[in-house]
Amino acid sequence: MGKRSTFEKRPRGMYLTPPEALPPLLPFLRPRVTFYEPCAADGMLARMLEDHGHFCTGRSDIVPLSTDVYQQDARKIEFTLAECFITNPPWDAGHMLPILEHLMLLKPVWFLLYSDWLFTRQASPFMPHATHIVAVGRLKWIPGSPHTGKDNACWIRFDRDHNSGANFYGR
Fold this sequence. Notes:
Elements: E1 34-37, H1 44-51, E2 55-59, E3 84-87, H2 93-104, E4 109-114, E5 130-138, E6 152-158, E7 167-169
Parallel strand pairs: 1-2, 1-3, 3-4, 5-7
Antiparallel strand pairs: 4-6, 5-6
């Protein structure tokens, strides 16, 4: 999963969102927010958000899956009635950056990412558009595993109309 892991990586960064990732994000969402989940995988993140009173207007993934719900590639979404995107994207730059570049043109975006990404060169063009950085900490990405991952995670909100940097919210 992480850069220091000896485990085999999953195709397209398909790591399902652990329930522990959600509580730090919830205080930053207005009640009953409408969202689109562009990297939905099994739909768990969308269902968890709906369990907290939010409304998913649609879901998709990088590679459309077999169900009718997943007909749009996350990098090619053209329109949504949602107020924002909320997702746990693949963490590899080859998948994640095109998704972020595209979605930011449409709506504000909440991404669950590894915290070290904030300090990479690839992050620098996006950081002026970051409005919030919400610390999550280490997560257990493999259900039933005795250990958490080696990387800390955070939620980052990006908005193309914002250009003055982010506020940081610790644990």
